[in-house]
Write a structure and sequence with these properties.
Layout lengths: L1 H14 L9 H11 L18 H30 L6 H34 L7 H10 L7 H15 L13 H12 L1 H4 L22 H6 L6 H10 L4 H6 L11 H14 L4 H19 L14 H6 L3 H8 L10 H21 L7 H34 L5
Length: 402
């Protein structure tokens, strides 16, 4: 590593002001600070120092995503080998899954990274580490069957329209990864919704009994009636509460299994990077929303209305969305009370969109994006209410409470 550090230090003058490669300084700075601790020292008056900076925050989120990424790779290969009647096993499934998933991640980082570099050079600022997370989050929300050119188009749209036009990392009002996925969802719905996303060999016939509909699609199309109807429809397609928690089924790359997502949630909460208030608030909101819909009449109404809360929790991508997307500190609510409201409304909206709108069987994406827009308004009213309470307290007792 010392050899590499010496080479970087030797080439540094070429990238500094007046050097022949001055315009490419963001590229030099990115590799220098990614590999080594910056040598810059702050001088002058006393400064607050903290070991947690943007880079460490983003690296922590990437580490929290590793369990989901590894499971997604394995499950993609498992589904491929199962459907195409090939030899399975941990190694074979993982290698086959890597064949399909890693190119998606690579394309996401490549084309999104190019956009980041271009804007850094134009604006003459450092390349922000925020894309380390966006570049991985986005492909994990996609089906493994997604064409690579759509991955490139989607991540460029999310990076430019979802973040860079607002000023870059820290200024975006929408989650960039979800913005990219929403673009693909509406621009190319055939590739982004409907059937189970499992790779097939060209001209291959699926095995007998292999289901070709996602759990959400099955629940949406279940015959009218009560809870028994929708649970029976799911069971007939091989979906039970246990199987959906285990996640060995088709779906977006990282959305299907609860355990890897919960491991990631634990990492984010313990390190203080992700807000537990948003996560818990989202689960509570999902419970309230599903409970209210469960009270609707059974006869003549969609049986999806009566899907129990536990199924709503593990079906689709709710857990992945509330843990990794909703907790984005830039686009989420900032006040503690606002985080409860923000997360709770995401949970309620998810159930409402899922059940009442057959065009969007998965409501997590839309509910999070909608609440991203509402987050500043929520914080505004929370702060306003707090000021009113403190003002009234001061007028009554002559000093501020707390």
């Amino acid at each position: 590593m010392k050899f590499l550090l010496d080479k970087l230090n030797k080439s540094a003058p070429d990238f500094e002001p007046g050097g022949k490669l001055e315009k490419l300084y963001p590229l030099f700075e990115a590799q220098d600070t990614f590999l080594f601790t910056p040598p810059d020292v702050t001088t002058g008056k006393t400064h607050v120092r903290d070991t947690v900076d943007l880079k460490r925050v983003m690296i922590t989120v990437v580490l929290a995503l590793i369990p989901c990424t590894l499971f997604g790779i394995w499950n993609t290969g498992h589904q491929y080998n199962h459907v195409n009647q090939l030899a399975g096993g941990l190694l074979n499934d993982t290698l086959m899954g890597a064949r399909w998933v890693l190119p998606i991640i690579f394309v996401s980082y490549l084309f999104g990274g190019l956009c980041e570099v271009a804007f850094a050079i134009i604006r003459k600022h450092e390349i922000n580490e925020g894309f380390l997370v966006t570049g991985l989050l986005f492909p994990l929300t996609l089906p493994p069957t997604i064409p690579l050119w759509q991955v490139a188009v989607g991540i460029m749209f999310g990076t430019i329209i979802g973040k860079e036009i607002f000023g870059g990392t820290g200024f975006n009002i929408l989650n960039p990864a979800l913005t990219a996925r929403a673009f693909l969802f509406f621009a190319y719905p055939m590739q982004m919704s409907g059937e189970v996303w499992t790779k097939l060999k060209e001209g291959a016939m699926t095995v007998d009994g292999w289901t070709a509909a996602t759990p959400l699609a099955v629940a949406t199309l279940a015959p009218n009636g009560g809870k028994d109807q929708v649970l029976q429809a799911l069971a007939e397609h091989g979906y039970t509460l246990k199987s959906m928690m285990m996640g060995m089924e088709g779906g977006s790359i990282a959305e299907t299994a609860a355990l890897p997502i919960l491991i990631g949630a634990l990492i984010l909460v313990v390190t203080g990077i992700g807000s537990w208030r948003i996560m818990v608030g989202g689960v509570v909101g999902l419970f309230v929303g599903s409970l209210l819909l469960n009270l609707s009449p059974q006869e003549g109404y969609k049986s999806f209305l009566h899907l129990p809360f536990a199924y709503h929790l593990v079906i689709g991508s709710f857990l992945f969305g509330i843990v990794f997307m909703a907790t984005d500190p830039v686009s989420a609510a900032a006040t503690n009370t606002g985080k409860w409201i923000y997360g709770g409304l995401i949970g309620i909206l998810t159930v409402v969109i899922r059940v009442t709108n057959p065009a969007y069987p998965e409501g997590v994406m839309l509910s999070i994006l909608f609440m991203n827009v509402m987050a500043p308004l929520i914080d505004h009213y929370v702060v306003t209410a707090h000021i009113k309470v403190r003002t009234a307290y001061i007028r009554k007792f002559g000093y501020a409470k707390g």
